[in-house]
Amino acid sequence: MLNKLVPLDYKAFAVTPAADRAAVVLADGTLLSAALSQESTSPPPLYWAAPSGQPTVQRAQKVLMAAGDLNADGRTDLVVLHQDAAGQDVSVYLGQAAPRDWQYDAGMSTAWQRALGSTAAFALALGDLDRDGRAEVVTGSGPRLTVWQTTNDATPPFQAWATELPATVETVRALAVGMTQDRARGALVAASATAPDAMGNASPFLHAFLTQ
């Protein structure tokens, strides 16, 4: 399937947990979504389209994007962070009934902007760590890991947990959220690296955390 895609100049890429949809942020800031057709063709074609209500982003030196169910409606949503020297903009797209569409949500974007906008993230992940049906948003900024959550649609996002990685860590490079094999506890894994030494070499580390 993937080898049928037209090459795109993109800055971020995300796939839904069910692997039935994908989203790409292009170099100019445009977000495109794609879904597998239900037609009985082989291989199934991908249809690319811009989500409804998408804001125009004309600048973005770096883009982070992650997928998860933010509002417990059973549909996968997107959180997109656009970064440049002026700061970090947060856009939230909610999954719709139509399988090929996400809808930009101004209210949730504003709420998450207030939570995430002040500190540029190096890594981003979404996942339901506490198994309440709502995905938490996990960010890595420098050596700091932060878990953000909401309890209902009317509650602004708040910081639920944070920790500083060991002093030797320069920055978090990647994040992943999942569950233990028995699905009893949430799991968070962070990949980090030390600052480069005189030879330019950095040491990688993995950090694993489990919910109680």
Give the topology, please:
Layout: E1 10-15, E2 21-26, E3 31-36, E4 46-49, E5 62-68, E6 77-84, E7 87-95, E8 102-104, H1 106-116, E9 123-127, E10 136-141, E11 144-149, E12 158-164, E13 169-179, E14 186-194, E15 204-210
Antiparallel strand pairs: 1-2, 2-3, 3-4, 5-6, 6-7, 7-8, 9-10, 10-11, 11-12, 13-14, 14-15
Summarize the main sheet: 4 strands, antiparallel
What is the count of helical runs?
A: 1
Average pLDDT number:
83
Low-confidence stretches: 1-5
H/E element sequence: EEEEEEEEHEEEEEEE
Placed side by side, the strands forming the largest sheet appear as: 1-2-3-4
Share in β-strands: over 45%
Number of strands: 15
Radius of gyration: 18 Å
Distance between the termini: 39 Å
* Mass-distribution shape: globular
Can you give the helix content as a percent range? under 10%
* Broad structural category: mainly beta
Quick structural overview:
With 212 residues, the protein is mainly beta. The protein has one helix at 106-116; strands at 10-15, 21-26, 31-36, 46-49, 62-68, 77-84, 87-95, 102-104, 123-127, 136-141, 144-149, 158-164, 169-179, 186-194, 204-210.
Characterization of the model:
This protein has one helix at residues 106-116; strands at 10-15, 21-26, 31-36, 46-49, 62-68, 77-84, 87-95, 102-104, 123-127, 136-141, 144-149, 158-164, 169-179, 186-194, 204-210. The protein is mainly β. The termini are far apart. Residues 1-5 have low confidence and may be disordered.
